[in-house]
Amino acid sequence: MDGLSWPSKFQLDEIREKVVEMSGGDAKNVKFVVSPYRICPLGAHIDHQGGTVSAMTIDKGILLGFVPSGDSQVLLQSKQFKGQVHFRVDEVQLPNYANGSSESCQTKNSSKSQEECNWGSYARGALYALQKKGNCLTKGIIGFICGSDGLDSSGLSSSAAVGIAYLMAFQSANNLSISPEENIEYDRLIENEYLGLKNGILDQSAILLSSYGCLTCMNCKTKDHRLIQAPNIYRGQKSDMKNAYKILLAFSGLKQALTTNPGYNRRVAECQEAARVLLQASHNEVAEPVLSCVEPEVYETYKAQLEPNLAKRAEHYFSENKRVVEGLEAWASGNLKEFGRLVSESGLSSIKNYECGCEPLIQLYEILRKGPGVYGARFSGAGFRGCCLAFVDSDLALEAASFVEDEYRKLQPKLANQINQDKLVIICDAGDCARII
Question: Which domain of life is it from (predicted)?
Answer without folding.
Answer: Eukaryota
